[in-house]
Amino acid sequence: MAETIKVGIADLNVCTPPNLITTIGLGSCVGIAIRDKSTKVGGLVHVMLPSSQEVKSNSNVAKFADTGIPELVNRLEKMGASRSRMVAKIAGGAKMFAFQSKTELAAVGERNVEATKKALAALRIPIIAEDTGENYGRTVTFNPETGDYEIKAVGKPVKVI
Amino acid sequence: MSDINVDEISSQYFDVLKEIGNIGAGNATTALSSMLGEKVDMAVPKVRLMEFKDVGTTMGGEEQIVAGIYLVVDGDIHGSIMFVQRKESAKTMISKLMGMPSEQPDEFSEMELSALKEIGNIITGAYLNSLATLTNLTIFPSIPDVCIDMAGAILSVPAIEFGTIADKLLLIETDFTDDEDMSGFFILVPDAESYGKILKALGVM
């Protein structure tokens, strides 16, 4: 019986078929799914903030794009995945409230997406699909067997990228 | 001003925050009662410092549809305040305010969203007023914005703001009741410096 592994906010985990891995209610956060196409080892990290350098409270590596993504890649490598075969799909980074851009953490969703792209580029992992921005929350489920990244949002049809 | 580590809030600070929550929610209840023109009761608020990953579950799961009313706070302190309700509780409040039942149980019309903003304005305003009075600090709230979505996505907004100073979120749960459930949660997110200011103004540090 296949299991669905749950990843919380500022959390990460790895997964092998036939299991699935999911994270619920991505708002401005970004859910990054990474998979080795041949070993079919996959993983998901749910990052909240772009950079661990900007804040003091940075003990949880999964909270930040700049530390969470390398950590997920490490975990995948420990499971036998090879970085050269890894590909990524990303979702989230919404702007939930219209005036959010006026707050100190200006447009954090957008900045999370940017930092995610930067971290993946630094690791030479290509992004093969993305569903980011807009103004609604997303629940995502990743299938390491097929690489399908299923995206559910309130009042919208299910999307697979 | 030294920043404080919110993860190490002592029980004394916690009691103070609880008391602010209590008084703030009390004022909010009075405001709500006069707005709705009926008696509204309030249970003693529950103040909880929660791990981010557990926050969604307090509202009946991360996928529970909630209404979040969000305001930016300025003045002597900086940060934001959010009032979150389950969709059903928000609907109940709106229909009481508008004096008629909702035509669409699953969707919110423009009129309903606007009513919800007003409710949020009054409730959070009352809450902030008591905080300002208690601390003698000047607090200006912005106009509110409302968003209806999954609890996880809505709550990630204050969680992200708080995330810069802590791995936990301070949640004040307030049960407003008359004959129906209208409970909601306040989430006050001062920035690190403002946290210190509030606690200092209250004489606990």
Describe this structure as you would to a colleague:
The complex is a heterodimer of chains A (161) and B (205). Chain A has one domain (4-153): 60s Ribosomal Protein L30, Chain: A, CATH 3.30.1330.200. Helix content of chain A is 18%, strand content 32%. Chain A is built from two helices and ten strands; from the N terminus they run βββββαβαββββ. In chain A, strand 4 and strand 5 (42-47) form a beta hairpin. In chain A, helix 1 (65-78) packs across helix 2. Chain B is built from six helices and nine strands, in the order H-E-E-H-E-E-H-H-E-E-H-E-E-E-H. Chain B is α+β, with helices and mostly antiparallel strands. Helices cover 46% and strands 25% of the residues of chain B.
> Can you write the helix and strand succession of chain A as a string?
EEEEEHEHEEEE
Nearest-integer average pLDDT of chain B: 78
Number of helices of chain A: 2
In spatial order, strands of the major sheet of chain A run 1-3-8-9-10
| CATH topology (fold) name of chain B | Chemotaxis protein chec
* CATH homologous superfamily annotation of chain B: CheC-like
- What fraction, in percent, of the residue positions of chain A are helical? 10-25%
Strand-pairing-aware structural class of chain B:
alpha+beta
Overall pLDDT metric of chain A: 89
**Structural class per helix/strand content of chain A?**
alpha+beta
The CATH class assignment of chain B is Alpha Beta
**First and last CA, distance of chain A:** 25 Å
Number of helical segments with 4 or more residues of chain B = 6
Indicate the multimeric state: heterodimer
CATH architectural label of chain B: 3-Layer(aba) Sandwich
CATH architecture of chain A: 2-Layer Sandwich
Q: pLDDT below 50 for ≥5 consecutive residues: which ranges of chain A?
A: none
Shape of chain A: globular
Uncertain runs of chain B: none
